[in-house]
Specification:
The chain is an all-alpha fold. The protein has helices at about 1-20, 20-50, 60-80, 85-90, 95-100, 105-110, 115-135, 145-175, 175-190, 200-210, 215-225, 230-255; strands spanning about 50-55, 55. The chain is built from 12 helices and 2 strands. The relative contact order is 0.13. It comes from Paenibacillus piri.
């Protein structure tokens, strides 16, 4: 509880610091929302033309898109600089975090807190519209709402674990941004769409090596199509917790291999 309270205090301090530049905050928020909106608009236009994609309707694909975007927003809001660890490794600023009387990961997570209001608003609007349409057709019921909340939280944990594992590799190779482009950005973009689009080898990677598909596609099969059974969401949650535990141990190993810049 002390760590949680300390994290809250550090986050508030980070928000106050970022809000010193209000124009930059609002401009970046609107710009992020516009970029994501244009991306989804392009997908929507294609789907309106062809009706569906590998048997997935526009509302089902919108659901996949919105849930993974919302999970990403939670992860990047609460642990933004885990994704940007390279700059700490190159500049030597990680040394300053190491001498603080709090765990390194907690100190890193509290740096440069991002509100990401644009992503939250856009994903919630898309998700609301898509779920409302699917409820009207009887595809899903009201139980889909709490199930979707659980799906988003599970996805956030998995995205954080993937980001943490990739960041840990930086303790050995330092330049880790290109790897993050693959394990986080490219993989997340891939699971915005039905995995039926991809060859079997790529599906295997997205479900095992980089388990981004477990963050939204697998639980969405149950929420939207009632595939498998009631055990799927608890099993996905158990996997997320186990995977995070493994990545936290890997993080500790990486810290033990870290070599200071000496600055």
């Amino acid at each position: 509880m002390n760590m949680i309270r300390m994290y809250g205090l550090l986050i508030r301090a980070s928000i106050r610091s970022r809000m010193q530049y209000k124009w930059n905050f609002w401009f970046s928020t609107v710009l992020a929302a516009l970029i994501n909106a244009m991306e989804f608009l392009l997908i929507s236009l294609i789907l309106w033309k062809f009706g569906s994609l590998k048997g997935w309707s526009i509302y089902e694909i919108g659901y996949l898109y919105a849930t993974i975007l919302l999970s990403k927003a939670f992860y990047r809001s609460l642990a933004n600089d885990v994704h940007h660890i390279e700059k700490y490794l190159i500049s030597g600023d990680l040394d300053q975090l190491l001498i603080r009387p709090i765990p390194l990961l907690l100190a890193l997570m509290s740096q440069n807190f991002r509100v990401m209001a644009g992503e939250y608003v856009q994903s919630c609007v898309i998700l609301t519209i898509c779920m409302q349409k699917m409820m009207q057709t009887g595809q899903i019921g009201w139980w889909a709402i709490p199930q979707t909340l659980a799906l988003v939280l599970i996805g956030s944990v998995i995205l954080f674990a993937i980001g943490l594992g990739t960041a840990t590799v930086g303790f050995w190779i330092t330049r880790v941004s290109d790897l993050q482009n693959v394990t986080e950005d490219a993989a997340r973009t891939a699971v915005q769409y039905p995995m039926e689009l991809y060859p079997m080898w790529l599906r295997g990677i997205l479900l095992t090596v980089i388990p981004m598909g477990v963050a939204n596609y697998v639980p969405a099969l149950y929420v939207l199509r009632h595939d498998f059974g009631h055990w799927l969401l608890p099993a996905t949650l158990a996997f997320a917790v186990l995977f995070l535990g493994i990545m936290l141990r890997f993080w500790k190993l990486g810290i033990s291999r870290y070599q200071s810049t000496g600055s």
